[in-house]
Amino acid sequence: MRGELRLTSNGVLHGVHLDGVDISSSLRSVALRLDPSGLPAVVLDVMVHDMSADLGRAQLCIPDETRDLLLRFGWTPPQDDVQQGGVV
Question: pTM above 0.90?
Answer without folding.
Answer: no
